[in-house]
């Protein structure tokens, strides 16, 4: 009887160890990102939603929705060359609601990852650099590899991998990241972003990050804990808190091909 009690006591202790370990290192139970063969590329904004603009003080008048579509198309080309299947949330200048983009991601489901492309605009012209947002633990490796690749290849200022509960990072059921690929309002980055070859460099950098994650999964990536949070809603924050609205004064210059 005593032996039986000791045994069940030991089982309880082991179980408690396991529970404690799980809470301390939840990601060690998820060895790697689910294998994926398809990338849903999301060019930010579109249609009536222009996103940010560079404003009139910069050398080139840039509109975020045009930059995002351009880089998305280039990224799609890079990924298809490497044998990945690619879907875009929009292929033209069309308004697509954020929830619609999330629904598409969730309909595609397992085997797909979501990469959203954006650019920053701030009235502070000194602000510059690149950052990548994620929310779920399963997206941290992908965000890390894309961010590293972007910073390495462009040599731009590293604003880091940032955990933020956005509709596009929190709500998808698949791994999802959002890249802010530079400031249209910064004089230096404004000139870079106006050049087709630099936009191509951005696409190549993002594709390398994605391909590295496909090859290695989360191997070598420090684990992060999953954090529960309610779904992100449109009413959570004023529309696009990361974009200062700048009045559109000049006519839009077409991007060079
Ligand atoms: Zn944006």
Describe this entry's structure for a reader.
The chain has 257 residues and is of the alpha/beta class. It has one domain (37-236): 3-Layer(aba) Sandwich (Aminopeptidase), CATH 3.40.630.40. The protein is 39% helix and 15% strand. The protein is built from seven helices and six strands; from the N terminus they run H-E-H-E-H-E-E-H-E-H-E-H-H. The protein has helices at residues 2-24, 64-81, 98-108, 140-154, 167-170, 187-193, 196-216, and strands at 38-43, 85-88, 112-120, 130-134, 158-163, 176-183. A six-stranded mixed beta sheet has the order 2-1-3-6-4-5, with helices on both faces. Helix 2 links the parallel strand 1 and strand 2. The chain is elongated. The N and C termini lie far apart (81 Å). The structure holds zinc ion. Zinc ion (ZN) is lined by residues 44-45, 51, 64, 118, 240, 243.
């Amino acid at each position: 009887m005593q032996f039986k009690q000791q045994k069940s006591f030991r089982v309880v202790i082991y179980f408690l160890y396991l529970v404690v370990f799980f809470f301390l290192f939840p990601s060690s139970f998820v060895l790697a990102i689910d294998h994926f063969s398809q990338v849903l590329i999301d060019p930010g904004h579109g249609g009536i939603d222009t996103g940010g603009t560079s404003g009139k003080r910069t050398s080139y008048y840039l509109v975020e929705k045009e930059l995002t579509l351009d880089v998305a198309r280039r990224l799609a080309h890079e990924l298809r060359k490497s044998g990945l299947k690619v879907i875009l949330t929009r292929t033209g200048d069309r308004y697509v609601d954020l929830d619609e983009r999330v629904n598409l991601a969730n309909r595609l489901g397992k085997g797909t990852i979501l990469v959203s492309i954006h650019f920053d605009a701030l009235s502070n012209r000194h602000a510059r650099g690149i950052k990548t947002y994620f929310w779920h633990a399963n997206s941290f490796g992908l965000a890390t590899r894309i961010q590293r690749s972007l910073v390495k290849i462009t040599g731009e200022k590293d604003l880091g991998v940032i955990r933020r509960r956005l509709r596009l990072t929190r709500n998808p059921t698949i791994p999802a990241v959002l890249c802010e690929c530079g400031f249209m309002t910064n004089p230096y980055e404004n000139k870079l972003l106006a050049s087709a070859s630099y936009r191509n460099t951005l696409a190549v950098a993002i594709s390398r990050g994605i391909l590295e994650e496909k090859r290695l999964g989360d191997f070598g990536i420090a684990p992060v804990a999953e954090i529960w949070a309610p779904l992100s809603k449109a009413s959570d924050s004023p529309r696009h808190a990361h974009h200062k609205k700048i009045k559109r004064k000049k006519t839009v210059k077409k991007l060079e091909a």
